[in-house]
Write a structure and sequence with these properties.
The structure is a single chain. With about 190 residues, this protein is an alpha+beta fold. It folds into 2 domains: about 1-95, no CATH class; about 95-193, Alpha-Beta Complex (Ribosomal Protein L22, Chain A). It contains 3 helices and 12 strands, in the order E-E-H-E-E-E-E-E-E-H-H-E-E-E-E. The chain has helices at about 25-40, 105-115, 125-140; strands at about 1-5, 10-20, 45-50, 65, 70, 75-80, 85-90, 95-100, 155, 160-165, 170-175, 180-190. The strands form 3 sheets. The protein has a 5-stranded antiparallel sheet. A 4-stranded antiparallel sheet has the order 1-2-7-6, with helices on one face. Strand 4 and strand 5 (about 70) form a beta hairpin.
Length: about 190
């Protein structure tokens, strides 16, 4: 699989990988293993990454990394689209979320984004795409999954911060786009004032 390291903030590692021969799960696990080793400064051979066992029905299953039999205190988030996957790794205390979209999405995807976006009518397709990837990254960082609708995410005017209306936590937003992929990382910040 081909992959590139993305320019994430200090303390967060992110990587984009693509390979049409691998399914999403295989790409995600391979990238996560590579990133965990980089983040921890350890040999990749000593790292094992897999999905945690669900504690109950409806539980959002997370990726979990171990080294030498010990669970590592890390948060691993991934997003995939077609043959590409992006993975981000940070210490467990730093909430992160990540999203990936095509630079030229199809019309069905554009309609879905328009339906749920707060972007003022008349925005360009590029503005809508930038807005939407940020909304999705905030939802991934929030961690409540489908229980929170995209319409409940708010972004500042510069698209540098996002939050969910019912929480006092905001997330910083960073564009990690590469080649034909629009990628946004959301990472934890201080409580809103």
């Amino acid at each position: 699989m081909e992959s590139v390291l993305l320019s994430a903030p200090e303390g967060i590692h992110a990587r984009l990988g693509w390979d049409p021969r691998l399914d999403e799960r295989a790409r995600t696990l391979a990238l996560a293993k590579e990133l965990v080793a980089e983040h921890q400064g350890i040999d990749q051979g000593s790292v094992h990454v897999d999905y945690e066992k669900p504690a109950q029905t409806g539980h959002l299953v997370q990726l979990e990394a171990t080294a030498s039999g010990d669970v590592l205190p890390l948060l691993i988030k991934a997003a995939s689209l077609r043959t590409a996957t992006v993975v981000a790794v940070a210490d467990a205390a730093v909430p992160i979320g990540i999203d990936i979209r095509e630079l030229q999405p199809d019309e069905i995807t554009m309609r879905e984004m328009r339906r749920h976006s707060h972007l003022i009518d008349g925005g360009t397709d590029h503005e809508l795409l930038a807005h939407w990837t940020r909304v999705q990254a905030v939802l991934a960082a929030d961690g409540r999954g489908l229980r929170v609708k995209p319409e409940n995410v708010r972004l500042d005017n510069r698209l540098n911060k996002g939050w969910v209306a019912d929480r006092r936590v905001y997330y910083r937003l960073q564009d990690l786009s590469r080649d034909a992929w629009v990628i946004t990382l959301a990472y934890g910040g201080l409580p809103k004032r």
